[in-house]
Amino acid sequence: MRIKGTGGLFLWLILVMQAGVVLCAESAGAGLATDAQEQPPPKKVLTLGVFNYLGDEQTYAKYAPIVDYLNRKLVEEHVKLEVLSHDELNQRIAEGTLDLATTNPTHFLHLCKLGHVAGVIASLVNENGDLYLPYLAGVIIALNQREDIKKLRDVRGKRIATPGTHLLGGYQTQVFELAQAGVQVPGDIAALLVVDTHQNVVRAVLDGSADVGFLRSGILEMMEDAGALVPGDFRIVNAQTADDFPFKHSTRLYPEWPVFNMPHVDERAVRHFASALFSLESDDPAAKQAGIYGYSVPRDY
């Protein structure tokens, strides 16, 4: 094309600039399309509610490493941890604002009866040294100098401290064993003190506000290891022994905590979550931090 004069030169420059704008726009559009295609879809958030049986802080410290591990493994989902009281867990499940939960077996069975649970995904397995511990038990403690409290029937007429009457390891297992021995709780005791945490039960017995304390197995050993208790301070009432179960206990053994999902959670997400949970090995730093062996296929509840 031949352009004469200054006006012709301006026209030529305008045409060149317009062509450049079109090319840039096309290039930018192609880049945006590529970015949109390469950007992964947002992860589906799965909210996991955990019963705060150790209190909020210690329960969070136990489960946070597990949730961090799951989030490193999961591709399509992200697990959000919420540590909740017994009542809060009930409310959130009823509202449908939790996708997954873990709590003690009797609490789980209560939720099943209400129709809030779709199914059990896995069962917790604790550890002690090299031992694989898929069970829990109840413990009945009294001060070692209390010569009047050695057997189950000696609990009659005494003051009992418990972290809560809804707890399997902290109340219900002990009440069952006492009933088998002819001691009804609360009918045959002087007082029942509900003190909210297992640690408070220990304190109540130590300071004399309670004669007897109900605990979940493993709590005494945990507090001794942390230096919060002197070994030998307490007598175990109705002490039991069991193969491959090293914790002090007063009752028979029961399956450990279940992990379960709610009916609204889609099967694909549940399968992904279960696969990640089962992949946690006992020697992984997350398992070590949490103080667990890992998770097994569901026990019989």
SSE layout and pairing:
Elements: H1 5-38, E1 44-51, H2 56-73, E2 77-84, H3 86-95, E3 100-102, H4 105-113, E4 119-128, E5 131-133, E6 135-136, E7 138-143, E8 159-162, H5 168-180, E9 191-194, H6 198-207, E10 212-216, H7 219-225, E11 234-236, E12 254-255, E13 258-261, H8 267-278, H9 285-290, E14 292-296
Parallel strand pairs: 1-2, 1-3, 8-9, 8-10
Antiparallel strand pairs: 3-13, 4-5, 4-13, 4-14, 6-12, 7-10, 7-11
Describe the main β-sheet briefly.
Answer: 7 strands, mixed
**What's the level 1 CATH class of the largest domain?**
Alpha Beta
What is the fold-level CATH name, i.e. the topology of the largest domain? D-Maltodextrin-Binding Protein, domain 2
Structural class by sheet pairing and helices:
alpha/beta
* Count of helix runs: 9
Description:
40% of the residues lie in helices and 22% in strands. The protein folds into two domains: 44-134 and 256-296, Periplasmic binding protein-like II (D-Maltodextrin-Binding Protein, domain 2, 3-Layer(aba) Sandwich), CATH 3.40.190; 135-236, 3-Layer(aba) Sandwich (D-Maltodextrin-Binding Protein, domain 2), CATH 3.40.190. The model is unreliable at 1-36 (pLDDT under 50). It is α/β, with parallel strands linked by helices and 301 residues long. The strands form three sheets. Strands 1, 2, 3, 4, 5, 13 and 14 form a seven-stranded mixed sheet that branches. The chain is elongated, with a radius of gyration of 30 Å.
